[in-house]
């Protein structure tokens, strides 16, 4: 039986189920402490596997395309935050200050790695440049996101300083990533062979963080703080934000004279925000705060970007197929 087109992917359905479970059966007390420890270990494993999966040869192959990478970085770490700050007079009253802070946090995050590369590959873009750009965005985001958060949100992380937040993120995310890169020499082939089921390590880590975050948020009354109108408005805001950035990234690629393959790479790498990095990073940057309201915009934006970008990628793939068919043999 064919899967209905309107039905979300399995991970999205599981994510919604986890939020529902956290709403009905939130963890608290010693159980919450145990989940917190398990979640931290899962996050370390997640970034270790990211390091083990990423080929240094593929990164080096696309590293020389510096103009493309500068455009992607500017869209990710400059354009997004500027849009978020500029829209405060409209967004803050529309969705409330807590959700608006979540939108600002979303705007400060690095790009995705896996989905950006997957969409560029499907759309027949510059895959080598996409691998390099997405990986570099994720790594530099460990240092840039806390600084951007401090600048646009006035949040300086647990411990009172941006440097402290960067240090904690480095220890929790970057060190396992580097360890994975070192271990790739011995386990890289095994990781490649088993990538189909290892994706559940990524997804499981995110689901653990979402469950613990929403458990705390439910206990603190998140659903009484977020009326249906604010939730629907937030969905519209995420859609509009994504469409604006997609339009700007495409125009930038065209105006700066990039070829079609490079413009596709800029489009998909410059418009994404990483749930896999954003959720665990929020635990460090906003330690002691309720994360539910902060990561809710990110969760919605993540699903919307996947749905919109798969349509775009398929469109460019069809164009590439039509072009190849029209060429003389």
UniProtKB/TrEMBL annotation:
Keywords per UniProt: Membrane, Transmembrane, Transmembrane helix
Superkingdom assignment: Bacteria
Residues annotated as transmembrane: 36-54, 66-87, 99-120, 127-153, 204-223, 229-252, 292-313
Gene Ontology CC entries for this record: plasma membrane
A Pfam family assignment: SBF_like
Chain coiled-coil ranges: none
InterPro entries, per database record: Na+/solute_symporter_sf, Put_Na-Bile_cotransptr
Keyword match Cytoplasm: no
PANTHER family assigned: SODIUM_BILE ACID COTRANSPORTER 7, SOLUTE CARRIER FAMILY 10 MEMBER 7
Name under which the protein is recorded: Bile acid:sodium symporter
Biological classification of the source: Bacteria, Pseudomonadati, Pseudomonadota, Gammaproteobacteria, Pseudomonadales
């Amino acid at each position: 039986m064919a899967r209905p087109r309107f039905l979300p992917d399995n991970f999205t359905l599981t994510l919604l189920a986890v939020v529902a479970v956290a709403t009905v059966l939130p963890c608290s007390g010693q159980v919450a402490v145990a989940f917190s420890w398990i979640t931290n270990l899962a996050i370390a494993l997640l970034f270790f596997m990211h390091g083990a999966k990423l080929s240094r040869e593929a990164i080096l192959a696309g590293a020389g395309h510096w103009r493309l990478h500068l455009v992607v970085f500017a869209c990710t770490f400059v354009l997004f935050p500027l849009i978020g700050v500029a829209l405060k007079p409209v967004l803050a009253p529309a969705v409330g200050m807590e959700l608006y802070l979540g939108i600002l946090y979303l705007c400060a995050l690095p790009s995705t790695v896996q989905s950006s590369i997957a969409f560029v590959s499907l759309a027949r873009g510059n895959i080598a440049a996409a691998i390099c750009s997405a990986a570099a965005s994720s790594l530099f985001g460990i240092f840039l996101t806390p600084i951007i958060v401090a600048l646009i949100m006035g949040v300086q992380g647990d411990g009172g300083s941006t440097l402290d937040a960067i240090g904690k993120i480095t220890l929790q995310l970057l060190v396992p990533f580097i360890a994975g890169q070192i271990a790739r020499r011995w386990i890289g082939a095994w990781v490649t062979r088993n990538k189909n089921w290892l994706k559940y390590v990524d997804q499981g880590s995110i689901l653990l963080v979402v469950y613990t975050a929403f458990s705390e948020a439910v206990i603190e009354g998140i659903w009484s703080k977020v009326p249906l109108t604010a939730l629907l408005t937030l969905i519209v805001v995420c859609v509009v934000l994504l469409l604006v950035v997609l339009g700007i990234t495409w125009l930038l690629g065209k105006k700066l004279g990039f070829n079609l393959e490079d413009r596709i790479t800029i489009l998909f790498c410059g418009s994404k925000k990483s749930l896999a990095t954003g959720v665990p990073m929020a635990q460090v940057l906003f330690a002691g705060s309720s994360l539910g309201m902060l990561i809710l915009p990110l969760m919605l934006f993540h699903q919307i970007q996947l749905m919109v970008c798969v349509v775009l990628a398929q469109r460019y793939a069809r164009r590439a197929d039509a072009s190849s068919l029209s060429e003389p043999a």
